[in-house]
Amino acid sequence: MSMNWPEKVIFCEVGPRDGLQNEKTLLSVEQKAALIEGAADAGVPIIEVGSFVHPKAVPQMADTDEVAKKIRRLPGVEYRCLVANKKGVERALASGITKVKLTLSASESHARANMKKSIAELLEGFKECTAFAHENGAAVSGAISTAFGCPFEGKIPVAKLVEITEKFMELGITELSMSDTTGMANPRQVYDTASFMREKFPAVRWFLHFHNTRGMALANMVAGLNAGIIRYDASLAGLGGCPFAPGASGNVASEDMLHMLREMGIETGIDLDRMIALARQLQQWVGHCTDSSVLRAGKNSDLISRTEAKKQ
Q1: What's this model's pTM, rounded to 2 decimal places?
Q2: Is 251 helix (H, G, I), strand (E, B) or coil?
Q3: What's the CA angle centered on 275, arms 95 and 260, to 5 degrees?
Q4: How many CA atoms lie less than 13 Å away from 182 in the CB half-sphere?
Q5: 3-class DSSP string for 225-239
Q6: Residues 75, 105 contacting (CB under 8 angstroms)
Q7: What is the per-residue pLDDT across 273-294, written as a single tens digit (0 to 9) for each?
Q8: SS3 20
Q9: Which residues are catalytic?
Q10: Distance between CA atoms of 219 and 136, rounded to whole angstroms?
């Protein structure tokens, strides 16, 4: 079977939200703004700047309003935020955010652990969110969390993903992410699921969102690429994890993903060196080592440069 490689991948940086939401160290508004602006300056086309949720639930995101108002915004860059209810949409709009994202778990158990509501209750609330957002000129995207596996329920049937996708589309949401929240996905599962969902829902712009909990995130991305998915999330320095999913460690590191794509000759339009420098800075801010192979070992081209220097 021949491999199906795209010429370009569309990349979204989720570090300012998903990366920081599980960190014990709380970054300042200024640090978060510098992180977002640095990613935009490096050429990242989509940045998830934070979430508008109750500060008691996720204290790391309590200052998202201030961050969103402070950041210098570049034309052509999409700045989006996660919301959980109409109040979140109102806060997003008031802070100048024009794209919000609604997340729904594919697992009933995870939905209740995460949002304290059933899937049906959450969908009912999403109707109000999307109506208010659209009335006020804001775009809405969606995400299906625990799309490949749940720590409470195990593997998620594809029929469940179909059901939730149909519900999102009924709300007028046609940009969706399948998120491996707990890092339970495997490449064959990703390929089969992504291929099926692309074929069944050709009008949907699909993203894939992988956590590297068991070291399979990049392999899963390769499977996604071969299934025809060209949009991916990742987090600088490999930070992240779901506070409501036991054992869910960080997202795949942005610099690891971007390095792999560059080595494969797949364009992203992003300055890898600037992203590596930003990831190193972020690692210093949170004060601990993170799951990033490129930060540990450097780029392939660094080895070649050192070898050439020794010859001279």
Answers
A1: 0.94
A2: strand
A3: 125
A4: 21
A5: HHCCCCEEEEEHHHC
A6: no
A7: 999 999 999 999 999 989 999 9
A8: coil
A9: 242
A10: 40
